[in-house]
C-alpha cells in the first residue's frame, strides 16, 4: 500500500475535532506544546466552541495540532510507503509529519505564520469558494473585480481572495454564469494572494530561525504550493514562505500523489474537504478522513489492511 496523508487547512474547526486523539498517549506531547501558545488546553478550547475557533492564530495552531496528533496514530501503524502533503496551513503540519520539524516547532511556526498574515492583511478582506466554472473564466472574472486566484482545487473549483464586497459581487456573478457553488468562506484573511505579500517576508525570517530536522528516513514530502517533491530543504522552505501570498495548486498535489502510486488516502485534521477532493482526483484509491473513524484501533486496522 502507498498511503497519501493529506493535512487539512483552516475552516473546519469544531468542538469534536480532538475526540479521537484526546486520550491517545502518543498525542499528549502535541497537546502540551500547544497549550501555552493558546493559553488553554486545545481540547478544552474546542469543546467550549465559539468564534475564537476561527480566529486566524488560534485556528492555525488548532489545525496543526489536530494533524500532528492524528499523525501519531499513523506513525505507530507503520504503513509501508507514505507521501504527505498539506493544504494551506496544513503544508506546515506536513513538514512535522515528514520529520522535518519537531511538533513544538510546527506549532510555534503556526502562531508566527498567523501573526505575520494578520499584520499584513487589511480589514474587510477574505476568501470565497467557487465551483462549477472553468478556472480560466473564474480567474478573469476575479481579476476584473480586483480579486486574486488563491487556490486551484480542480479544473472547475477554486478559492479566490479579495475585498469582501468584491467577493460577494463575484459570487453573485459566478452563480448567474452557471456556477454550482459560490460562497464566502469563514476566513477573514486573503491568504495565498499578493494582498498579503509582506507576510511572506516575515515568515521567511521565522523559518530561517527555526531548528530543522534531517530524518534518515520517513514519508515523501510534497510541497503544498505545487506538488513537487521536497528534496532540498532550503528550496522547500522558500516555497513554504511563498505559498502565503502565491496561488496554491492543490490539484497538482493530488496529481503528484496519484503519480506516486497512492492507492489509499487519509486526511488528518478537522473536516472532510480534502478527502472529498481526493475521491474525485484518485477514483481508484480507498479514501477516508480521520474523522470517519470512531476509534484509534479502527484507524490502525484500516491502515494495516484488516
Automatic annotation (TrEMBL):
Q: Name one Pfam family in it.
A: Acyl_transf_1
User: Which terms does the UniProt entry file under GO BP?
Assistant: fatty acid biosynthetic process
- Lineage: superkingdom: Bacteria
The record's section on SUPFAM superfamilies has: FabD/lysophospholipase-like, Probable ACP-binding domain of malonyl-CoA ACP transacylase
* Alphabetized InterPro entries for the sequence: Ac_transferase_dom_sf (IPR001227), Acyl_transferase_dom (IPR014043), Acyl_Trfase/lysoPLipase (IPR016035), Mal-CoA-ACP_Trans/PKS_FabD (IPR050858), Malonyl_transacylase_ACP-bd (IPR016036)
Q: Does the keyword Secreted apply?
A: no
Q: Could you cite one Gene Ontology molecular function of this protein?
A: [acyl-carrier-protein] S-malonyltransferase activity
Q: Name one GO cellular component term.
A: cytosol
Domain Malonyl-CoA:ACP transacylase (MAT): start-end pairs: 6-306
Kindly state which keywords UniProt assigns to this record, in alphabetical order.
Acyltransferase, Transferase
PANTHER family tied to this protein:
BLL0263 PROTEIN (PTHR42681:SF6), MALONYL-COA-ACYL CARRIER PROTEIN TRANSACYLASE, MITOCHONDRIAL (PTHR42681)
Record protein name field: Acyltransferase domain-containing protein
